[in-house]
Design a protein that fits this description.
- The complex is a heterodimer of chains A (116) and B (116).
- Chain A is 0% helix and 52% strand.
- Chain A is mainly beta and 116 residues long.
- In chain A, strands 2, 4, 5, 6, 9, 10 and 11 form a seven-stranded mixed β-sheet that branches.
- The chains are: A mainly beta (116), B mainly beta (116).
- Chains A and B meet through strand 4, strand 5, strand 9 and strand 10 of A and strand 5, strand 6 and strand 11 of B.
Chain lengths: 116, 116
């Protein structure tokens, strides 16, 4: 079974630009979560999608948004990039959000975003 | 609010030594899940173990073992006879068992270096 895939793996942008990152979950997984990892703040939860609906959101500004498609693939978008948005963005999928016994999250390799 | 503390920022040991990674958590929920993830230099978070709050039984998997104690809110991870390949950053994480909420709260991580 293929794991979680994220594209692109590396991205360089300049301040003020916007960026879209993509995540394809493990086949059959319907929940997709996004996390930001930085040296200073560590791993922080951005948001989670299930059945094309955002179910949970972390404490990030509105510049960070996401969506999920009917095939469970998800995208996250960051508008008006700032230097502090440079980070590793990790996507995770889990089998079924309503079955609490199945909430292991499996992570993709991440997209490393550098903002210049 | 939920919080996970990994007091050990970095640990360095010589191969074949045993090493314990500490994790202390805070939550007001009575039902929750605890996790350990490994992050090798490649960046992808690798799931190691999940424990629910009702199961305090310790677990051993090969060279890995976990000690969950609700009385001290700790979920420690021990590697026996460490190997160079165990070198990675290890994260402890907490998830509330909330229907429809897939959100992990991570500790700051412990960087483990196994020297030959």
């Amino acid at each position: 079974k293929a794991g979680v895939t994220q594209t692109p793996r590396y991205l360089i942008k300049t301040r003020g630009q916007q960026v879209t990152l993509s995540c394809s979950p493990i086949s059959g997984h319907r929940s997709v979560s996004w996390y930001q990892q930085t040296p200073g703040q560590g791993l922080q939860f951005l948001f989670e999608y299930f059945s094309e609906t955002q179910r949970n959101k972390g404490n990030f500004p509105g510049r960070f948004s996401g969506r999920q498609f009917s095939n469970s693939r998800s995208e996250m978008n960051v508008s008006t990039l700032e230097l502090g948005d440079s980070a590793l963005y990790l996507c995770a999928s889990s089998l079924d959000g309503y079955q609490t016994s199945y909430n292991e999250q499996f992570f993709g390799p991440g997209t490393r975003l550098t903002v210049l | 609010a939920q919080k996970v503390t990994q007091a050990q920022t970095e640990i360095s040991v010589v191969e074949k030594e045993d090493v314990t990674l500490d994790c202390v958590y805070e939550t007001r929920d009575t039902t929750y899940y605890l996790f350990w993830y490994k992050q090798p230099p490649s960046g992808e978070l690798v799931f190691l173990i999940r424990r629910n709050s009702f199961d305090e039984q310790n677990e051993i998997s090969g060279r890995y073992s976990w000690n969950f104690q609700k009385s001290t809110s700790s979920f420690n991870f021990t590697i026996t006879a460490s190997q160079v390949v165990d070198s990675a950053v290890y994260f402890c994480a907490l998830s509330e068992a909330n229907w429809g909420a897939q959100k992990l709260v991570f500790g700051q991580g412990t960087r483990l270096t196994i020297n030959p």
